[in-house]
Amino acid sequence: MFDDDYKQLLEKIHSAEKIWLISETRFGFISFQAKKIVDRIMPLLTIYLTCSGPYMRHVTRYRHNPDWGVLYIGDGDKVLMSDWCSRFTSNLGVKSLGVYDILHVEEADL
After folding, report:
1. 99: domain range?
2. Which residue from 10, 16, 40, 88 could staple onto 66, CB 3.0 to 4.6 Å apart?
3. Into how many domains does the chain fold?
4. pTM for the predicted model, two decimal places
């Protein structure tokens, strides 16, 4: 168990309409720090799984979860990150807001 302020952060994440993850990129993907944030949102889901097309997905704990998008800095692999973001948001039962290079932030629906 971590002794930090993540519980309060999780409450804010849960009540938001949109979450934009802003990250530097390493090896074409989001940084390990950003990935750690995503990994720690699992309390928004339950341990139960359900079939969704050809995939197994977690059952969401709450009716509402925010839509997620990624703004990245550096030489990210946009195709890889877009596919990951789509799968991640599908597991949460929400909409992907897309993946955008910070230099083209005007394309994002902020």
Report:
1. 17-107
2. 16
3. 1
4. 0.85
